[in-house]
Amino acid sequence: MKLFIWGWLLALSSSLIWPEIPPFWIIFILLAGAAIAFYFRRYFIAGICLAICYFSWQAAAYQNAVQQLAKSPYNHTIEGRISAVSNDPYRRKIILQITHLDRSDGHLVDGKFIRLNQYFNGPQSAVLPLFSGDLIHVQAKLKPTHSSLNEGGFNYQRYLVSHRIIAQGTVRKITYIHSGHSFHADIVAKLQPFLQDLSQRGVIQALVVGDRSYISATERDLWMNSGIGHLLAISGLHLGILSFWGYLIGSLLACGQSRIKSYLAPACALLFAFGYGELANWPASAQRAMTMLLIWWGLRALHLNCTRIEVWLIAAFILTALWPLSILNAGLWLSFFAMLALIILLWFPVKTKLVRMLFLQIGLLILLLPLQILLFGYLPLWSVPLNLLFIPYFSFAVVPCLFISCLTALIGLTGAAQFGFALSNHLIGYVDNALALLRDHVPLMLEIPHHIWFIVLLIGVLFILSLVIGKPWIGLIALISGFLAIGLPWSKADWRVDFLDVGQGLSVVIEQGSDAIIYDTGNYYPTGFSYAQAVIIPFLNERRLNVDEIVVSHKDMDHFGGYALLHQHFPKADSVFGADPRFKLHNCTGVRHWHQLILEYIQPPTTLQSVNNLSCMVLISDGVHRVLLTADIEKPAEQWWLKTFHEKVDGISVPHHGSNSSSSQKWLNDIQPHWAVISSGFHNSYHFPHSAVVSRYKKSHTMLLNTAELGQISILFTHTHEKILSYRNNVAPFWYNRLLITNNGW
To answer: Is the whole model's pTM more than 0.85, yes or no?
Structure first.
């Protein structure tokens, strides 16, 4: 059945690039094809057909659940069991497994999840304590699965789909039904007194109970960019460490009796791994690792003589059959390839155990680097030496110390537990200090643009295939062609304007060559989330752009929120501010020649008073094309424009996110844009764009584009024409990136 599983895995992997979920008539044809393939013993084809059918069924069930949610208003009543809960100073984050959603059919939401935020309006001590496993009744304002999508940014929508989260929302009221009698909840309650005063509480809590909410974004980025971010999350590595120690202790307890050892050592290995998984509340990575361990030891207990690659295939099949949508999760790919890389490396004969351990660790890190570049878009420059140092450090010091500290705390040895956690705090502090010291002296990572890592991947595949079929000259041609392709000028546009998807805010990047100007900086929230950090900087890194100037139209937070971070990140960039009285400097005036473009800074008069009408506008021209960025101007500023200017433009940013206070018909008739981009949040509370505004643009025969529906929108210009691209339709037009419901659906 190896061929069947290979076909199954190949078909599931292809779902990453499906443009749509296959319709039912294709599924019926594939089911018939699978039956015929089984009859003629074409197991590889049978595996492909059945995998496509199974995954399509699961993906369609997910989409149907989202559609079911979209049929009712924003406010919902949900009953469910808490899967995970964590707190930060501003809110409580809850992952809730649905048992009942409004009056929907149970089978539509069965096995689906909702991500909820409960914001603290008063002291946290007054908030009802909740734990994993608790059954609760919730009234919440929900939005179907959706996230901002931009080049270089984290694809949160794919993450939500892979975890079967059909909606996100804000809690209005929680009613406690009954406790889930969660062992994990009891553990968390007993450990909190030991953890709350530790300087490394975030890392320790992540490693002990799987709660990463106390790790700051700065610390997380430091570990990730260093290439050891996997040590912060409960993963197969951590369960493997505890399994190793369990096996070692079981072997010692057997006292040299080989028959006893053959049962006791595996039992202790599984017991330690299970205990750690229960301690961490079984995140998806721990579930996968535990499943692999059970398969490995189960096959050995049954005395089935399976090769390592057969064990890997069986584990991969079972995991993808249990959680098919997890094929979209980067963690699953890392787990699969780490195990496959170990199997490959074990084929090489190594004389001593110490050399074998070093060989396996170095080989594993090197083999996984291409996949890490493919998944995350950057190369951690110090990954190999840091992992060589810190994986043994965590394996033989940090994780055992934490595990022993937890055990002593749970059995009531308070003094020993305090000492153990204090020691663990120092051990992790040394790592944090070492990484910070390294960051201050050398770059930690190298951003890899997508076209380069795609070429590297393609070269690797062609090279391996050339060796398999015995024609190395094909691989040589692939290598030469790849190096030439990497050096090509991939961007054929003379200049471009990118309207980034920053929710209910605005941020536009004007790009020519390798330089950029940022117009407005998106929002910043009290929780610490910033679109500058999550979207703008990753986009600029992906495009490899140097920022010459940051223009802030006015000081409303959805336009100004990311300025401080961007100014810190690009200290040499000039700043231009509108006439908003909240700014100390007002310098939105004049005309600037920037490369081959002419930038005209247009400032409405302060007599208009409203800060929206005082927004700094920018008119961009190359002598042929003209683009007007308008920020939040309203009808008074538009009337001033009509008296002062009479210039037609090719495109505009829609004023004030599509508010009915802007985009007057006379103004549109005067500027006559061919296209207009709305930067708005998905199902935003302001109901932008207003239906009257949409009607006025239609009347003006203007193509209206919305970042909430299309993700990042890019306008590419050459001397003769312009080209419009969007993330959802052109950059990554895959089924899980689609808008699962339309704005007209509610």
So the answer is: yes
